[in-house]
Amino acid sequence: MMISVIIPAYNAGKKIHETVQAIKNTRLIDEIFVVDDGSKDDTADQAASAGAKILRHHKNLGKGSALNTAAGQVQGDVIVLLDADLGESAQKFTRLLSPIFANEADVTLAKFPPPPVPGGFGLVKKLAAAGTWRLTGRKISCPLSGQRAMTKQVFTSILPFARGYGVEVAANVDILKNGWRLKEVEIEMVHDFSRRDFAGFMHRGRQFYDIFRTLVQKSLGE
């Protein structure tokens, strides 16, 4: 069974080499695509030096667009989506594969432990969880997790990915409405998170708006 990894990356030069190397060290992956989403640093060079295949956007188009760009390139029977800033902890993605290999799930979603330092107030996560439950009847603990694995059939069925910060929520809703089996898997991965400062509040504000818009669109059948 062939396994492909897609990593959307924007200005991730400090972590992307370590992330790609950690994934390769598992010796389970057949191909790793890093989509450089208009980075202004050396993200592409760092990823390439670690052995990833590079796809480029000339400007920042967002995570959903990055995933759509890679969709036409991946060959795997199982597709793994990971963030660029996981560093050494990226190797723990292997826990996402077991339920799929055992035919217990069509999609797995990483469930992270709480961050060591509190970030926001949880409003964005609560909106995403409540909206997903309202539209699908399913409660998801970590609806915003970008770390997930799925069969190629699932991946193809939810294309194209939504733009903006609603990409994970839109994918969750489409996956569940299509009747695919989704399982959350506890994994202790480490990545960057927004803090309680001005930049963090601005980031969460944009997230909240995009997720709300996505949920409205899904409720209208778009």
Report on the structure:
Residues 4-117 form the Glycosyltransferase 2-like domain. The protein is 37% helix and 17% strand. It has helices spanning 16-24, 43-49, 63-71, 98-101, 123-136, 152-157, 167-177, 198-219; strands at 3-9, 31-37, 53-57, 78-81, 107-111, 148-151, 182-186. Strand 2 (31-37), helix 2 and strand 3 form a beta-alpha-beta unit. The protein has a single domain (3-117, 142-193), classed as Spore Coat Polysaccharide Biosynthesis Protein SpsA, Chain A, CATH 3.90.550.10. With 222 residues, it is an alpha/beta fold.
Features:
alpha/beta, seven-stranded mixed β-sheet, 8 helices, 37% helix, globular
Annotate the secondary structure layout.
Blueprint: E1 3-9, H1 16-24, E2 31-37, H2 43-49, E3 53-57, H3 63-71, E4 78-81, H4 98-101, E5 107-111, H5 123-136, E6 148-151, H6 152-157, H7 167-177, E7 182-186, H8 198-219
Parallel strand pairs: 1-2, 1-4, 2-3, 5-7
Antiparallel strand pairs: 4-6, 5-6
Helix pairs in contact: 5-7, 5-8, 7-8
In short:
The chain is of the alpha/beta class and 222 residues long. Helix content is 37%, strand content 17%. Helix 7 runs parallel beside helix 8 (198-219).
**Main CATH class:** Alpha Beta
Shape: globular
Largest sheet: 7 strands, mixed
Decide which structural class fits the backbone. alpha/beta
Number of helices: 8
CATH topology: Spore Coat Polysaccharide Biosynthesis Protein SpsA, Chain A
SSE string: EHEHEHEHEHEHHEH
What count of domains describes the coordinates? 1
CATH architecture: Alpha-Beta Complex
Mean pLDDT: 92
What percent of residues are in strands? 15-25%
End-to-end C-alpha gap: 34 Å
Give the neighbour order of strands across the main sheet: 3-2-1-4-6-5-7
- Unreliable stretches: none
Number of strands: 7
